[in-house]
Amino acid sequence: MPPKLKDVAKLAGVAVNTASSILNGRKDSWASVATKDKVFAAAKKLGYTPDRLARSLSTGKTRVVGLIVPNLSDPFFSALATEIGNELIRRDYDLVIEDTRLDYQREILCLDQINHWRFDGLIVVPISLDILNSHLVPLAKRGTAVSVLGNHPKVASLGRIGVDLDQAIDEAFARLAVLGHRRVGLLLHGQARQQSKISRVTKFEQALYKHHFDATKPCVVNCESTLESAHAAFRNLLEHTAAPDLPTAFVCMNDLLAIGAMRAAAEAGLAVPRDLSFIGVGNVPLSRFLPVSLSSIAEPLEKMARATVAQILDESPVEDVEFSATFVERESIGAING
Amino acid sequence: MPPKLKDVAKLAGVAVNTASSILNGRKDSWASVATKDKVFAAAKKLGYTPDRLARSLSTGKTRVVGLIVPNLSDPFFSALATEIGNELIRRDYDLVIEDTRLDYQREILCLDQINHWRFDGLIVVPISLDILNSHLVPLAKRGTAVSVLGNHPKVASLGRIGVDLDQAIDEAFARLAVLGHRRVGLLLHGQARQQSKISRVTKFEQALYKHHFDATKPCVVNCESTLESAHAAFRNLLEHTAAPDLPTAFVCMNDLLAIGAMRAAAEAGLAVPRDLSFIGVGNVPLSRFLPVSLSSIAEPLEKMARATVAQILDESPVEDVEFSATFVERESIGAING
DNA sequence: CTGTTAGCGCCTTCAG
DNA sequence: CTGAAGGCGCTAACAG
Question: Whole-prediction pTM value?
Answer without folding.
Answer: 0.94
